[in-house]
Amino acid sequence: AVEASIPEQLRATWRRLAASEFKEKEEFQKAVVRHVETTLARSMYNCDDAAAYAGTALALRDNLVIGWNKTQQNQTFQDPKRVYYLSLEFLMGRALDNAMLNTQVKDVAREGVSELGFRIEDIIDQEHDAALGNGGLGRLAACFLDGLATLNYPGWGYGLRYRYGIFKQEIIDGYQVEVPDYWLDFNPWEFPRHDVVVDIMFYGYVKKDTDENGRTINLWEGGEVVQAIAYDVPVPGYETRTTNNLRLWSSKPASGEFDFQKFNSGDYEGSIRDQQRAETISAVLYPNDNIDAGKELRLKQQYFWVAASLHDIIRRFKKSHRPWQEFPDQVAIQLNDTHPTLAIVELQRILVDVEHLAWDDAWGLVVRTFGYTNHTVLPEALEKWSVPLVQHLLPRHLQIIYDINLFFLQSVERKFPQDREMLSRVSIIEESQPQVLRMAYLAIIGSHKVNGVAELHSDLIKATIFKDFVDIYGPDKFTNVTNGITPRRWLHQANPKLSDLIASKIGGYDFLKNLSLLEGLRDFVDDKEFRREWNEIKLSNKIKLAKYIRDTTSISVNPHSLFDIQVKRIHEYKRQQMNIFGVIHRYLTLKDMTPAERKKQVPRASIFGGKAAPGYWMAKTVIRLINAVGEVVNKDRDIGDLLKVIFIEDYNVSKAELIVPASDISEHISTAGTEASGTSNMKFVLNGGLIIGTMDGANIEITREIGEENIFLLGNLAEDVEELRHRHRYGQVEMDPKLRRVCDEIEKGTFGDPTIYGSLMSALTTGCDYYLVSDDFSSYLATQDLVDEAFRDKDEWATKCINSVASMGFFSADRCINEYADMIWNIEPLNPLASSNVL
Ligand code: T68
């Protein structure tokens, strides 16, 4: 790298010429016009919204890159301990608006483009979401990057650069249809690093050899090689010069003679096939949320990404010539679920096989380096890899896993000499046909801290799936870090009017960096004018959503009706089926009423959104039912505005930014004990909506923070679930009579051919109602009645909302990141200006 540097005596010249960031409107406009005319080769006669978006994004990108380079140079000079967040998913959404707000140039940009004939909102709307994630886990990673940068932590994200993100959802005849999401057509936010390339090997065999000291060494060789090429994405913090990096790996064939020979010998197709096989690794995001499918290509993705990232991390560590003993003092690696667990094995392999450290010394470093976050207790989501598959793809890694397991089981045996059962229970290898690797166990054994993502969830993993490991390691290895969300995107960006109103009351925008300052809102709860403005903002957000619904579905929704929203991945445990059964019950109840009675009811719009995994039949059936109910209800003249049922197609991050600020009540009604945390619950409350929910995940802590009087709780508790399930399996359980009536109506054909819903109906009966819909249904309906009653009293409702927002400080991603930094990573913020003199 030294040879590539400009000689010391010429650097003054360079510094004089160095690029600088725009601050004023005119500089910004110049940059936009220059990019439209030169980068895009277009002109004022040929500049539509798309070109204006490109010009604006490129102008803004120039600014980002300057801060980004400085941050990275500063981090290199200071060489602090860094954290690396390994996640197979980063659900970033759009970048332009966020970057403008974080770098404080949105007003300049708005005026600037307006004088060029554009509206900033239209320009923002041109951007394609970066949708490299399924749901909560991927969006959490994106919120964490924002928090890390805003708090000036030296932290990078490492992920995969999928050519296709999560599929685009279309609804055709009420059914979900998946369409590929090709998002890379124009992506100004990524920088290919053609010089950052790592060779990654698969397959091959292990050869035993002896080193110069006569010790046995294992050599992994003879495999197939593909290349990982880095693409970097700048991540600007809010109101700071820190701009961190998200590094995404893309796969390509290793350049070599082989292709060339095939090509020259006339096998053109063959050479292309090899290329495609290599490129397939990073081609597509697996579209499952909370389901483990166990496919070979997925395992390839995992190793490819983990090996490239570790190689990169180690290369950076080696720059400072420290001894290996200091590795965990310089590097923290956080595993976002078990997807990157092979990193533990890969680091051990490099330390032992390549760097020739003694096993125990290496293992000590490994364990001090890694932390593991668990996101689920659902058995179908816990990752397991078939041993024969791993043997074939990663033969040396399997040997290392066997050794890790052996030493671990030996230590367990020493601690519990009597307990043979324990050994088979905690073994990384499950003795099934074929044998499988329990990745969560490997992640626990190879990490110094394991955390859940909300209090209940962290308690549950200690008491259930990881109980033995608590007995083995003691309770201190296990901890809780309750999830958080970034208030920059989820309040300031998504709901600018509310953010401005709050700022005007509590003394500026400091709350965006210190969310607990929202407490200041309490002083204004009784202020009539404030409440009026508050309500007006909610109404305008609802009008905006109603307009979107009308434009996209031609259904009119009365913006004064109660907006009841459930948007999240479709999953049986999240119980969208309970919601739609409740809607049917409401419909039947309204139909039973006289016109005079109906007049007294609170009008409601039930709004749904979310994707089903393409292979998840039951979830797709739920979507079909929601749409069928909408078909019937929305055109029923008896009903009118009293009930509308809407399914918003293709729910994603940018749609969430439209939907979340428009809610009166949102639904977080998972079977108790199944939703690890949930994060949209936090987003809705932060935007002045109330929630109806079960005692599950972060709902419990939200209740603690905002007060029981401000949340609509329902249903059974986690502690009772096991007993209830037992009764369904072994006893006589009558279906809730109101649910029975709903099912009868479905089976009568009111919502189309009832055979369509057969699987849904039998889940409640022969399926033993695993998610306890029947058990919670009457509580759910009763609680919905309370919601109606509360909504009638507009003053009381506003009081609840304002007091809730005032109490949401705890749920900032910043609080969450500081907890990880203190308890798990042991890292400190880095002053972004520290070495500005040398830059
Ligand atoms: C979610 N998990 C949890 N998983 O369901 C949610 N799974 O409660 C929690 O708030 C959130 O994580 C953040 O902690 C997921 O989103 C997945 O998307 C996923 C993806 C692949 C395989 C398994």
UniProtKB/TrEMBL annotation:
It comes from the Eukaryota. It catalyses: [(1->4)-alpha-D-glucosyl](n) + phosphate = [(1->4)-alpha-D-glucosyl](n-1) + alpha-D-glucose 1-phosphate. It comes from Pyronema omphalodes (strain CBS 100304). PANTHER family: GLYCOGEN PHOSPHORYLASE (PTHR11468), GLYCOGEN PHOSPHORYLASE, LIVER FORM (PTHR11468:SF3). Its EC number is 2.4.1.1. GO terms for molecular function: glycogen phosphorylase activity; pyridoxal phosphate binding. It is an enzyme of class 2 (transferase). This is Alpha-1,4 glucan phosphorylase. Belongs to the glycogen phosphorylase family. Its cofactor is pyridoxal 5'-phosphate. GO terms for cellular component: cytoplasm.
